[in-house]
Specification:
By secondary structure, this protein is mainly alpha-helical. The chain is 62% helix and 3% strand. A hairpin with a 2-residue loop joins strand 1 and strand 2.
């Protein structure tokens, strides 16, 4: 992982770090709300390579090119919303304890306060939703909360609030009964978590 460098009084984030941050932001957008035309267009325009993640991105692009916003939105609702609840419950507290609003959420809120991160008043869901956690990681990398976080700081947040449950969530997403468009999303997320974990180990 690249480090953050300072130019004068400004902080510059390396291209590698920006790429990581954008990946977190893409996954956050996919998991945080039903897709719209803008999101599908972004996916259609993604540049891909022959890596494992690149191959899954190619599958996602193909699905985006052959589906509609309405179909993807219906799938999102079945997976994450439902009549009473969706097939999956994308919250850290639920994955670690079986219940919402438990100790893992309180621990996250403590860390958010220390990092100067506050939840928007317009957001009703608890802060430990996977989309919010990935948005926070994006912000830590690029400096949305004051300054770009160091690699050890990023690693601490990743280990405490993401690595402990997100790989299992993505595995469940890949295998979910309602998943079609989200099958490659699950695979991409699982692979990206592996890459991040390995990179943090190397950087330690």
């Amino acid at each position: 992982m690249a480090t953050v460098t300072k130019v004068g009084t400004k902080v510059r984030v390396s291209e590698e770090e920006r790429f990581r941050a954008q990946f977190y932001l893409l996954l956050s957008r996919l998991l945080g709300a039903a897709a719209d035309h803008d999101l599908l267009n972004v996916i259609k325009g993604l540049e891909v390579d022959d890596t494992s993640i690149g191959q899954e991105l190619t599958r996602l692009k193909t699905l985006a090119e052959n589906t509609s916003v309405e179909v993807v939105s219906e799938e999102y609702n079945k997976l994450f919303i439902g009549v009473t609840q969706g097939e999956l419950i994308p919250f850290k507290s639920y994955y670690l304890t079986g219940f919402l609003n438990e100790k893992p959420l309180a621990e996250l809120r403590d860390d958010m306060q220390k990092l100067g991160i506050a939840k928007s008043d317009q957001v009703a869901e608890p802060e430990d939703h996977i989309a919010f956690l990935f948005e926070m990681m994006h912000g830590l990398i690029v400096g949305s909360f004051g300054r770009p976080s160091t690699i050890p700081e990023q690693n601490r947040f990743f280990e405490n609030h993401i690595a402990c449950w997100a790989p299992k969530f993505f595995e469940n997403l890949e295998m979910a009964e309602a998943a079609r468009f989200f099958v490659p999303v699950g695979r991409i997320g699982k692979l990206f978590m592996e890459v991040e974990s390995e990179a943090f180990l190397i950087a330690a």
